[in-house]
Please model this.
Amino acid sequence: MKKCISFPVDDLNIFKIQMLNWVNRFNIFCLLDSQQYNFEKPAFECVLAAGSKANLEAQAGNAFNALRKFYAENKHEWLFGHFGYDLKNETEKLRSDNLDGVGFADLHFFVPEIVLQLEEKEVRIFTDDGAEKIYRQIVTAAAEIKETGNNAVVVKNRITRHGYISIIEKLRQHILLGDCYEINFCQEFFAEDAHIDPLYIYNRLTKLSPNPFSALYKLNTRYCLCASPERYLKKEGSKIFSQPIKGTSRRNPENAEEDDRAKKYLLESEKEKSENVMVVDLVRNDLSRICKPGSVQVDELFGIYSFPQVHQMISTISGEVEEGRQWIDCVQATFPMGSMTGAPKKKVMELIEQYEQTRRGLFSGAIGYVKPGGDFDFNVVIRSMLYNQADQYLSFQTGGGITYNSNPELEYAESLLKASAMMKVLE
Model:
C-alpha cells in the first residue's frame, strides 16, 4: 500500500491544468475527471494515475484469466486500465475481422507509480516516496495548455450518408424478422496523417463538452480522449450498479422554451422509452448473474439529464453482489455493456460485426480503476477520440440504438449530433 499525503489546492481548475502538464512526461497515465457534475456524489473530483510499476496487456482468448492472475499478484494496489469491446470474442465466442486503425489491446491494466485524488480544496498523493517533490513539480507547472503544431485535420466518414441509411433499413428488417429487438449501430469518422497534440485537443474537447466520465488515457503512443456521459459499472462494498443511456435529444440552451420541448420529447417518446426499457431489462439480466437472488432492482427509470450538447435518458439498475464474487466476475458477466450492443446480446453483436465497417476496439469498451479491496468504477468509452500517434491515425465513432420504429434519416442526424463536439474541436 502506498503512503498517502494531502496538500492544499488553491484553485481546482488551474490545478487540473497543472496536473495535465506535469503528467504528460509519463509514457503511461490515466486521468478520470467528473468535471464537477453533481448527479450523484462522486468518490472524488478526479483521479490521476501516472507511471507503471507493473502492467498486463492481453488479447481476447485468455484475457480474463490473465487478469485474474495479475490481480492476485497486485490486489493491494490500485489498478487502472481498460476493457476493449472486442473482449466479446472471448465472452461470447465471436470474432472480429474489420479494420482497426488505432490498435489498442483488448485489455490493459497497470499498477501506477503515483495516484493523485483531487478534491476542491486538497489533493491526496499516493506514492512510495517523494510526495512533496511531486506536489512542487505540479504547482510550478504551466497553468495553461498551449497549442503546439497544427491540430486541424481532415475528417472523413467511413460510411456514406446513403450507405448509413441503407444499413438502418436492413437492420429494421432483421428486427421485423425477429432476429433482434434493438441494435446499437455505429459509424467511424477518421483522419489519416493526423498530427495533433492530444493534451491540447482533450482540453478543448472537455471545455466544449464537459461530461462526468471524462478521461485522458495514454498507453505509450496510443491515446483515448474521452468526454463520456455514461457509467458502465460501479461497485462499492457489496452494492453494484449500472447507468445505461438510451435516448437522446438536441439541446438548445439559448432558447429555454425549445430546450424544455426537447426534454419533454424524451419523456413522451415511445420510441426512446422502448429503447431504454429494453436495455434496462438486459442490464437486469446481466446483473442477476452475479447478484443475490431478488436483489436486482431499477432505482430510476427514464431519468432525464442535461449535458452541454444533448439531453439524455438514463436509468439506474442496482443489486447486491453474491458473496465470493470477485470484481472481475462482475465485469465478465456483464461485458460488453448492453447500451452499446442491444438485445439479444450475442445476436446483435454478430450483426454489428456484419454491418459496421470498423472494429470498435476501445470504443464502446470501458476505462476506469480498481481500488485495493476490489471496489471499482468504469465508464463507457463514447464521445471519444482514439489516436495512434505513431501512425498518425485518428478515429471516433458515433451511432445509436435502432428499433423497428427508427427513422433512418433521424438516426443519421443523431449520429452527426453526437459527433458534433469532436468535429468542432478538430476544425
